[in-house]
Design a protein that fits this description.
Helices cover 53% and strands 6% of the residues. The protein is mainly alpha-helical. The chain has one domain. Helix 1 packs parallel to helix 7. It starts with a helix and ends with a helix. The relative contact order is 0.17.
Length: 210
């Protein structure tokens, strides 16, 4: 959900900045290996569409979900010169780390689920189950590896669509907004040549002496 809002905010910011040229600017974005990003999204669909059930029943969707993050790392590296892409890459790596250490799922606690699902109690969220139509596995806090990178950030009611997300998601969202706001490559770094000025001075001194 937060990534959807990031795309919307990024598009609005781009429209404000570029006005009638906004979509032309985005169409001209020099994206490389775009098919890799599309493949990564496709690999996530089986898990994101799965209903709530024990995670043991989701071995294949889980493996595909983990593989999708490896593809995202490849995509980010190939497009690292684009504005916002370093933030997106950092977010992907944060999510990949916590997912890899927690069985291929993004962990979320029952307490967090109660916060974003008003009217439910802890008994509604059995530990070890997949949180339906999401990337999450329900785990107690003490069982979560890298808890600080899991889905601990919450937008609670009265927001119409209460949601939980990770630090990695937040970084990706910020990167998406920057990318849409400035859809161009960052300039290559010019290598400094510290000896150039010194040689120039010596050459001028030699000319004066002659």
């Amino acid at each position: 959900m937060i990534l959807t809002w990031a795309v919307i905010l990024g598009l609005l910011a781009s429209l404000v900045r570029y006005r009638s040229q906004a979509f032309a600017q985005m169409a001209a974005m020099p994206v490389r290996v775009g098919w890799v990003a599309l493949a990564a999204v496709a690999l996530q669909i089986p898990l994101l569409c799965a209903s709530s059930r024990p995670v043991q029943d989701l071995a294949i969707p889980c493996a595909l979900f983990l593989a999708s993050h490896l593809l995202l790392v490849v995509f980010v590296w190939c497009n690292r010169r684009l504005s916002g892409m370093p933030l997106i890459g950092l977010g992907v790596i944060c999510n990949l780390a916590v997912i890899a250490l927690n069985g291929g799922f993004m962990p979320i606690t029952p307490e967090t689920l109660v916060r974003i699902n008003p009217g439910t109690g802890l008994a509604h969220w059995p530990v070890g189950f997949h949180y339906g139509s999401s990337k999450d596995i329900i785990l107690p806090r003490m069982a979560i590896r890298l808890w600080g990178l899991s889905d601990i950030l919450v937008i609670p009611p009265p927001f119409p669509w209460p949601t939980a997300f990770s630090v990695g998601d937040l970084l990706i969202a910020a990167g998406i907004i920057l990318l849409l706001l400035n859809p161009r490559s960052r300039p290559d770094r010019v290598e400094a040549q510290p000896g150039t000025d010194l040689m120039g001075l010596l050459f001028l001194r030699k000319e004066k002496m002659e």
